[in-house]
Amino acid sequence: MKKATIIILAAFLLIGCLSGCGKGPSPKEQGDGTISIVTTIFPEYDWVKNILGENPAKAEVTMLMDNGVDLHSFQPTAADILKISTCDLLIYVGGESDGWVEDALRGKTNSSMIVINLLDILGDAVKEEEVIEGMQEEDHDQEQEEAEEEYDEHVWLSLKNAEVLVENISEAVQAIDPEHAETYRKNAAAYVEELNALDGEYETEVSSAPARTILFGDRFPFRYLTDDYGLSYYAAFVGCSAETEASFETILFLAGKVDELSLPAVLTIEGSDHRIAETIVQNTQTKDQKILTMDSMQSVTKEDAGNGVTYVSLMKDNLAVLREALAGEE
Predict the structure, then answer these.
(1) What residues have CB less than 8 Å from 195, skipping those under 6 apart?
(2) Which end of the chain has the least Cβ crowding within 10 Å, N or C?
(3) Is 239 helix (H, G, I), strand (E, B) or coil?
(4) Entry pTM
(5) Is the pLDDT of residue 16 over 60?
(6) Domain ranges, residue 29
(7) Which residues have C-beta within 8 Å of that of residue 205, sequence separation ≥ 6?
(8) Is residue 204 part of a domain?
(9) Per the structure, how many domains does the chain have?
(10) Residue 20: predicted pLDDT
């Protein structure tokens, strides 16, 4: 975070040079008809694109995390800070990993900017991170651990959350561009119907699956998804963990659970080297479990989006993986 602070300070100096001491109007206030929307991660970016549809206002939509670096490792550039300070709408997750955003917002030059914090919108639906049986705990300073609540930031991996967030983002876009508000409202309503239909597919698949437990030899960012459908899980690490090596005790515990529950697969997330999952499989009795990957959408780039990757397509891919992981014994 020290590097991010230095970048933010440098950006503030740059913003001051460009804008002087006063608060400047937004592009809409200047009357040029443009809208600038900044999102931090891919799901937000894709939701906005669906709300805009054919984009009658020719809004410029920026995804800051566009180089494959995930939420937990991202460091903003001075250009990122400048983009945030002048945009009309900023959408960010709002967890501990986004702490730099609060600092960046202190230098904003657009007095009418709308800011959407996903965790704030969801309120009581946001879950604290949990350490369950067999999971590797991170080393924490005890006083710090007692003083701070750590929230699970991966709220976008719940279709139910996505529906709520899309509606709130739609309202913000309508407020910025009331001339096309009805178009945005209709686009959002159609998209929420699509999300709701996929949510129904998840409900149907999970309710009829032979198994009710999944196991990750990796970080576990899918707690919102498993809670939505009443699934149990085991994992090597919590979703926001920085750990990359699992203890022998963790490996043996997870391998034992694979055997006990006759699980057909050990799961990983995108970008993982699969070493932990492979070691778990090698310590099971049959050593024949599949290693499957679910996508937490933390490394999706704008290029991927340009090639047809969408939030819905990735959630459908995750459903296909979940179906295989819950197949149970043949």
Answers:
(1) 159, 162, 163, 166, 312
(2) C
(3) coil
(4) 0.88
(5) no
(6) 2-142+150-198
(7) 319, 322, 323, 326
(8) no
(9) 2
(10) 42
Please name every residue paired with 214 in a beta bridge, in sequence order, or none if there are none: 233
Q: Residue 248, Cα to own-chain centre: how many angstroms?
A: 30
- Give 58 or 18, the one with higher predicted confidence: 58
- Is 174 found in the same domain as 74? yes
> Looking at residue 70, what is its pLDDT?
67
326 touches 320 (CB < 8 A):
no
pLDDT tens digits for range 141-168: 544 445 467 899 999 999 999 999 999 9
| Mean pLDDT computed over 280-297 | 97
Question: At 37, phi and psi to the nearest 5?
Answer: -120, 125
| Burial class of residue 288 in the structure, from the number of CB atoms within 10 Å of its CB (0-12 exposed, 13-18 middle, 19+ buried) | exposed
Report whether pLDDT(212) > 80: yes
Mean pLDDT in residue range 1-9: 46
Residue 52: the pLDDT is 98
**What values do phi and psi take at 258, rounded to 5?**
-60, -45
SS3 for 38?
strand
Q: What contacts 24+ positions apart, CB below 8 Å, involve 246-253?
A: 246/136, 246/217, 246/276, 246/279, 247/136, 250/134, 250/135, 250/136, 251/276, 251/279, 251/280, 251/283, 252/283, 253/133, 253/134
Tell me how far apart the alpha carbons of residues 62 and 25 are, in angstroms, rounded to a whole number: 19
